[in-house]
Amino acid sequence: MKTFELHDATTVQQAVTLLGQLGPTAKVLGGGSDLISGVMKDWIQGKGMPLPSALVDITTIPQMTTIQVSGSGARIGAAATLTSIIEHQEIRRGWPLLVDATESVASPLIRNFGTLGGNINQRPRCWFLRGEKFDCYKKGGDFCFAVTGDNRYHAIIGGELCYIVHPSDTATALVALSAKTKIAGPQGEREVAFDEYFIGPRTDVLRENILQQNELMTEVSLPPLASNTKTAWIKLKDRQVYDFALVSVAAVVTSENGVWRDGRIVLGGVSPVPYRAKVVEDALQGKDIRANITAAAGAIRSVARPMSANSYKVDIAQGLIERAVLQALA
Amino acid sequence: MPQRSIDAFKVLSDYEYAATLTNEEWLSLSGNPEYHTLIADDPSLAEELIARFGMLVPGFSAALAAAASVPLTGFGPTVNRLAGRGGGSAAPSNAEFSIVGTSVPRTHGFGVVTGVGRYSENQTLPNMLFMKTLGSPYPHARIRSIDTSKAEALPGVHYILHRFNLPEGYQDVSLGSGPPFRYLFNEELIQVGAPVAVVAADSDHIGDEAIRQIQVDYEVLPAVVDFMEGTRPSTPKQWDNRLDGTILTIASPFVRGDVERGFAEADIVIENVTSMSTIQHAALELTTDLTWWSTEGARPQLTQIGPKRHAHGARSAIAQALKVDQSQVRVITPGYLGMSFGSFRDTDLPEIHSALLSWLTGRPIRFMSTRSEDMVTRTHRTQTRNESKIGVKRDGSITAFFTKKYGNAGAYRGGGGTGNSLGLAELYTIPNLRQENIDVFTNMYRYGSYRCTTHPNDTLAREPLIERAAYAINMNPLDFRLRNLSEVGNPETRRPFSNPGIRDTITQTAAAIGWREKWHAPKTREVRPGVFHGIGMACHECNHGAGGAPSTGSVVINADGTLTVVSGAAEVGPGERTVMAMIAAETLGIPMNRTRISPDVDSDFTADTGVTAGSRQTLSGGWGIHLAALDARAQLLDWGARKFVDDARVAGQTIQVSADQLDVRDGLVSFKDDPERRLPIAQVIAFASNPIIGRGAHIHPPTWERVAFATHAAEVEVDTVTGTISVTKYVAAHDVGRALNRMATEQQIEGGVIVGLGLALTEQLLVDGATGIPINDNILDYKVPTIKDVPEKIDVIMVENAKEYGVFGAHGIGEPPAALGFSVMVNAVYNAVGVWVEDMPLTREKVLNALKGR
Lengths: 330, 854
Description:
A: five-stranded antiparallel β-sheet; four-stranded antiparallel β-sheet; B: eight-stranded mixed β-sheet
């Protein structure tokens, strides 16, 4: 691994100042399971993805690890560990979807170290991006190797230039739960809905979200679930621990007498961002869910553009949307 | 020394070449580590060679001489079970043993489960430097120049070694056979990761930075990434090759009868293509060596500690590569390790680089590879493609079978995982049989053994087609197998099986899984919406576990009556050392808690008993130890007799006692007819004035067809929405001869089943087709199953048909359990959803594509 400086921040302000002072190759460090033992250990770098020369540890900022729940919702520090979310009784009661998604991440060991902010902001798992010898678009190169190569795990929706899929389970759940995040930067704090947070390769191929290098995600806030709302989480993976989603579905369903009133269906593992399946939601609007879910789930095919080797993921996405919605109703 | 270097692989595959060897050159093969690894991994390679060159073939001459004096008996087409002859009723039951047949915990299990055992990674020396390798980024390229000046300027970098500054005399050193050659550093790189330079630095991290500061100018050359492309005449040759493209060998076909006539006689002829992907061990322990020179004595002495499966083989390989004497090299393999099942197959380039860097820097060198280096540059079981064809009659008889196998040998000159299948030759009655084998070189993952070499692929080339044939004639696959079973031996060599248990493995598996009740027509049992139940089975036969030379051991009975077992059999995980101790303790009547065996093997203190491969150590090291213990026992009883006589003399009596009147049990030497007249062993040793040293060296006569038999069956649920295959029940029955350590044998079978399922369902090592660069050379993307991915319960059935050639009747069990998973899954998935998916692994994309007819 390349030598780097490590700074322990004790306040958000100090962390932001350090990021500014240390410059473009300084990075925020959470649990480090992706940044250190992934990106840095494997020398994943390029013109547009310099290896960090300095890390600012934010798990040393006490306020960033807290979880608070009140009548107006939950506030989770971005440096809270995944395990602390899973074990939080009020979160378990109020947002089981987030808990299920969090519990499906990696393994107990990684969840003990990994933070919520880290899980949301981790870099994608594309095997070309993660291969030291492939200089791809995302690293500042001029090629996407997935287009000509083995793309069995790549995007089936919304790929363009680059065909990564967003790797985060918690991000998928948070979009479904209409969550927001706070971002601290040199100009102070701002709040952004997760609906606006993730960006695709057309916007900026070098990033997966709007966070700037000198900014820091400090907090995630969850509104309470509306009444008559039920949720479900399904994550399909090739291995039951230590694996990312092949396809995941976060379903939030508000219904009356089995009729869809409101809700969100968000897919992980299929698109460069957590993908909100509006076509399916629209097809269910005002309809009896059980009677119409099969046809509605099929609407996902209208937005899917599979690559040479991943049309099977479209079948799976369609099947799992149906199963997740029915599971939420059950 | 011979004038030319002998190509071991060529000797075993090209008999014209073998015919040119002089007697001296034949002799030199006995010291060739590659030769021994090749025949240990695949004993059948030597068969044809022995048939043609007999006594010249190293490792077999004594056995052949012994066999020549004993005519083969008990073989004939009408003999189905060799009752009485093969040990069966005549063999002693487990009740007659005190240690053999029980469950004995590992002799060094505590250090394994707690981690306090000294693993190679724990070995350190003051002043040691760390070695890092710069590997080729291309599958095929030529180095134009190397500039190390920037890397050398990094503080903490001590030495950089590469092709152009290799010490005089090492430019021509290569490992294994050629062409193409694998030199210490190639100018023409033939594989991604092939070493370009090595750095000795103060730490791993400095070395890691340094290798990235080395400037190399490469000329990129066309590479063969697809092995079938390597068979085409238009593919550029990479050496002076008289065959098409990069084909290494086209073996002489195995021919029995006339397959064309057989197919003409058949009512139904069915063909299929099965294929295996490249798989790797993903051993938890990475390649780790500590290497240093010492200068005590007249000549420099090299020591290397690291996980290896053959200390003496490594010693010989290192000595050859360094051009020193074997007496100048000492290799220690710690018994604490997380490797093998075929990984660390042979001594590889980093082991030699470490020795050179240690010499050049005068410091100990520590090398630990990265996961990617282990997954890319060590050995693999590589891709195969099998084109098979079976002819059957409606009455259930097989008229003919044909296979043509292609194997991807990867970036070296050697076998590619093909070979003639014993399972076809002798598991079923097949009157007309033809087998063809073609091995191809590619600039890809290098071939080796992974829980066997060729046999899992043999079984894949046969068992799904057997099942297809049964379905085609509307016969239950269980009945089809039983109807065609051959329990005789090898029709070509006329060597008989010893007490074969194949029928028992089939019937007991069928009973345990409830085959008769559960088997159904394909895709007829939907258990939940979109989820279908299926059941499948496969049989297996291979010649692993047979043992062979070298086969040595020694034991020492100490002054206090305790036993020290000295064996060169390397522990590679399943408990070889424990079994060696058990065999000695049982033979000598000394309890296990008075018996010691070291976990490690040190080439300085042990005799060679061959590589721990081919599932051979229970019989190879085991026979050596058994004979050593018998030798010690004879001496002990002799001294015991003298001691009884002397005790009587002291008491004023005169008696006559001979050793054959005595027995030894539970650490006491006693009279057979009066067990109360007894002496503790310590008293006998005190009387003898010296510890007793027993030695053993066994000749394995080729009297019997020594083979392992197994049957596995599984129930699965296949989800037609997700393509998920869930194994709900798995039964594995093996003819183990005798389970020496009951617990270890069971674990070995369970572990093999898990490996087999991982390989069948998720594991495959991939490369980018356009660049030839590996894409999943890590254990996140190379999907080894976890404990959450395996069936909760695996029913293990041990059929104990004692073998006449076995130590206490045992047959080795290492590899066979991992060989059936592929075929069982193919067959069960067909029964569940009615599609044949025969390209390994059975990923959800293949299952879904097959269901959709894509």
